[in-house]
Amino acid sequence: MSTDPFGAIYLQRRLSSEFALADHIGVRVETADDTGLVLHAPLAANANYKGTAFGGSLFSVSVLAGWAWLTRYLARESCEADVVIQESRMQYLRPVCADFRAHVCLPADVDVANFRRMLRRAARGRLGVHVEIRAGDSVATRFEGLYAAAMRPG
C-alpha cells in the first residue's frame, strides 16, 4: 500500500469526481509516483463497432493521463492551480484490440523548471506532456498535449 498522499488513490478520486467520462469508460490509475504515471482502460468499455478501441477513447485517456500527471505534480509542490488542455496532437499507429494503458513520458527537468518559473512569475504556465497508449508491449498511439495551468486566487 502506497503512503504517497498524491498517488494512485488521490488521482483516482480526482478523476472520478472531476470527469464523469473517466468512470464511464473505466479509467483506473494503475501507478502514480515520481517515476511516472499509468492509466488503465478496458477494451470492453471503449470498443467501436469493429471491436477495436474507439479513437475518441484513446484520445480521452491520453488527455486524462497528461492532466493527472500535471495535477499530481502541482499537488506535490503545494501549488494551488487548475489544469486544462490547451493544444494536442495524436498519432494513431495501430489498432488496439485489448485493454490498454496510457503511459506518461516524463517531461524534461528543464521544461518543468521553466513551467514552474512561469507559474511563480505570471500565475500561469504551460507544459507539454507526451503520452503513449500501449496494448501489451506495442505502442499504439502517441499523444502530445500542451497543458495550461493557472493559479487559483487566494
Give your account of this protein's structure.
This protein has 154 residues and is an alpha+beta fold. It has a single domain (8-151), classed as Hotdog Thioesterase (Thiol Ester Dehydrase, Chain A), CATH 3.10.129.10. The chain is built from four helices and six strands, in the order ααββαββαββ. It has a six-stranded antiparallel sheet with strand order 1-2-4-5-6-3. A hairpin with a 2-residue loop joins strand 5 and strand 6 (138-151). The termini are far apart. The mean pLDDT is 96.
Q: What is the element layout, followed by pairings?
A:
Layout: H1 8-18, H2 20-24, E1 28-33, E2 36-41, H3 55-76, E3 81-92, E4 100-105, H4 109-122, E5 124-135, E6 138-151
Antiparallel strand pairs: 1-2, 2-4, 3-6, 4-5, 5-6
Quick tags:
154 residues; alpha+beta; Thiol Ester Dehydrase, Chain A; 4 helices; 34% helix; globular
Q: TL;DR of this structure?
A:
This protein has 154 residues and is α+β, with helices and mostly antiparallel strands. The protein has helices at 8-18, 20-24, 55-76, 109-122, and strands at residues 28-33, 36-41, 81-92, 100-105, 124-135, 138-151. It has 4 helices and 6 strands.
Order of secondary-structure elements: HHEEHEEHEE
The parts where pLDDT drops under 50 for at least 5 residues are none
The strand order across the widest sheet is 1-2-4-5-6-3
Biggest sheet details: 6 strands, antiparallel
Number of DSSP helices? 4
CATH fold name, please? Thiol Ester Dehydrase, Chain A
Distance between the termini: 34 Å
CATH class: Alpha Beta
Write down the domain tally. Answer: 1
Global Rg: 15 Å
Strand tally, please? 6
Query: What is the strand content?
Result: 35-45%
Average residue-wise pLDDT: 96
* Residues in helix, %: 25-40%
How would you name the CATH homologous superfamily? Hotdog Thioesterase
Q: What structural class do you assign from the helix and strand content?
A: alpha+beta
The CATH architecture term is Roll
Morphology: globular
